[in-house]
Design goal:
The chain is α/β, with parallel strands linked by helices. β7, α10 and β8 form a beta-alpha-beta unit. It has an eight-stranded parallel barrel. The chain starts with 11 loop residues before the first helix and ends in an 8-residue tail after the last helix. It is built from 17 helices and eight strands. It has two domains: 250 residues, Alpha-Beta Barrel (TIM Barrel); 65 residues, Four Helix Bundle (Hemerythrin (Met), subunit A) (Up-down Bundle), CATH 1.20.120.1460. Bound molecules: flavin mononucleotide (FMN). The site of flavin mononucleotide has 22 residues, from β2 and α11.
Amino acid sequence: MENKAPSSIISIEDSRKLSIAPMLDWTTSHYRTFMRELTQHTLLYTEMVTTGAILFGDQERHLKFNEVEANVALQLGGSDPEALAKCAKISEDRGYNEINLNVGCPSNRVQSGSFGACLMAEPKLVGECIKAMQDVVSIPVTVKSRIGIDDQDSYEQFEDFIGTVNQVSDCQTFIVHARKAILSGLSPKENREIPPLKYDFVYRLKEQFPDFHISLNGGVKSLEEAEEHLTKVDGVMIGREAYNNPYLFAEADQRIFGDTSAEPVSRHEAIKSLYPYVESELANGTYLNHIARHLLGMFQAVPGARKFRRHISENATKPGADLNVLIDALDMVADQSLS
Ligand SMILES: Cc1cc2nc3c(=O)[nH]c(=O)nc-3n(C[C@H](O)[C@H](O)[C@H](O)COP(=O)(O)O)c2cc1C
């Protein structure tokens, strides 16, 4: 792959200006490797990995990443400071650039493990978790939270959460999904849609803690919207839109990071640049669909997009599916540069 010289990697602090959210089953190593064809500077997050999965599971599988993904933050799920510290150290040794603690996931499975969003009720413990990790790694340790949970939903309670975490750990980097989580009665999907977005909580937080890095997350669908938020906060994290419409990141290096040397690639170029990776992965036994499924959103509103998607969906799962499936799919869709 081209354009991946380490010198092109900006600092983790600078890359936080725009990030792609951790998303289970979506932000896999294959997805992240592909996103590097579109943007070099955007900070990428892994899916959440639990401490149990790292300490007692298939570490190789859970922590697999490709060096071209940098800067990449590993998101951990857990609430035991000692276990988190062990996992943070293992992850730093593997080359991750940041460790992030999940304080936002509302799923029942996560709640029964007493981590994720329910940790918003335990700011001191969150601070202890962060501190335990900071003590053993030299990379940044950050928090991704909601603005509240259930009836703990006032601005004062949110500010108190952030303030306490900071007092205990000195953590100064917070990524905030700007809606509260409702811990019973809503599915994780509903918890990303039903509680209203309250961007003003995040803007106020930045005013209150001007020295902190505050990233805003939730409902951002374009670089224009990101630019607007960036007038009030330090960073913007994009989730679903980064998956459903990955090409929006083709302009990110220029527009958000001001890198005038970064020429946006065309959709076709981006996919073709991935071919050597696809071939080496196939040779190692990866199924084509595990990579190709992440490309389905690439041609939104481009003539032929439906044929492209259908060809991949119907053929990439077949036994022995190889690069020709992608090559043929690409022939079905118009090559357009940035519109
Ligand atoms: C499929 C999916 C999986 C997700 N998995 C995680 C996760 O592992 N950790 C996490 O902190 N948030 C997770 N989220 C939440 C996102 O990181 C993000 O906070 C949320 O989608 C709101 O941002 P958006 O409106 O830009 O999508 C997930 C979201 C989706 C859609």
